[in-house]
Design a protein that fits this description.
The complex is a heterodimer of chains A (about 110) and B (about 120).
Chain A (H helix, E strand, L loop, with lengths): L4 E3 L2 E4 L5 E6 L6 E7 L5 E8 L14 E5 L5 E5 L8 E8 L6 E2 L3 E5 L1
Chain B lengths: L3 E4 L2 E5 L4 E7 L7 E6 L6 E6 L5 E4 L2 E6 L4 E6 L8 E8 L9 E3 L3 E6 L1
Parallel strand pairs in B: 2-11
Antiparallel strand pairs in B: 1-3, 3-8, 4-5, 4-9, 6-7, 7-8, 9-10, 9-11
Classes of the chains: A mainly beta (about 110), B mainly beta (about 120).
């Protein structure tokens, strides 16, 4: 597609439930990133995928968070046993080279 | 450890004025410094970026000034317009292992341009 597509755009879930967020990167972009943006805060790095290399998971805040990517296409971010502090906008970005990411519009997650 | 410090948190400017947002970084290995613009409900979009081999880069009304010795860089928006009202993020990255272009972001500046 023309841009990075994320779904759903909004998700409300009950505390303790699992959620899965999806990201479709720009075709041909080898790198894919997940960031978290809490209300009024900056962007917090979560995880990075580059081709077939092992992902950089150094930003995942706990073992409740995991992510997968199939080749150079779709990625899913899974949060298990959601907590209220997980409420945030989850942003996905993809890039082809060194110069700049293209972000999706994000998934707004609300845990009630 | 906050590797990129951004100020101010919020900024109000009159139409036609100059908006200035500052960032400071700690890691001297950083070698790519982009600025992103984010409107409500949207993801951040790349606005302008600079490498440390130049001290200034200008694109239209937007200019990045870079001071390598001070480890600081700033965004200047000339002739600010109400449509520039958005949140601005500075960021920095360094090549890691030859392929990891992970960006470290500042906390953002909410710019409001009054008509």
């Amino acid at each position: 597609g023309a841009g990075v597509s994320q779904s759903p755009s909004n998700k409300v879930t009950e505390k303790g439930k699992d959620v899965e967020l999806r990201c479709d990167p720009i075709s041909g972009h080898t790198a894919l990133y997940w960031y978290r943006q809490r209300l009024g805060q900056g962007l917090e790095f979560l995880i990075y995928f580059q081709g077939n290399s092992a992902p950089d998971k150094s930003g995942l805040p706990s073992d409740r968070f995991s992510a997968e990517r199939t080749g150079e296409s779709v990625s899913t971010l899974t949060i298990q046993r959601t907590q209220q502090e997980d409420s945030a906008v989850y942003l996905c970005a993809s890039s082809l080279n060194y110069y700049g990411y293209t972000f999706g519009s994000g998934t707004r997650l609300t845990v009630v | 450890q906050q590797q990129v410090k951004q100020s101010p948190q919020s900024l109000i400017v009159q139409k036609g004025g100059i908006s200035i947002i500052n960032c400071a970084y700690e890691n001297t290995a950083f070698d790519y410094f982009p600025w992103y613009q984010q409107f409500p409900g949207k993801g951040p979009a790349l606005l302008i970026a600079i490498r440390p081999d130049v001290s200034e880069k200008k694109e239209g009304r937007f200019t990045i000034s870079f001071n390598k010795s001070a480890k600081q860089f700033s965004l200047h928006i000339m002739d600010s317009q109400p449509g520039d009202s958005a949140t601005y993020f500075c960021a920095a990255s360094k090549p890691s292992g030859g392929s990891n272009y992970k960006l470290t972001f500042g906390k953002g500046t909410l710019l409001t341009v009054n008509p």
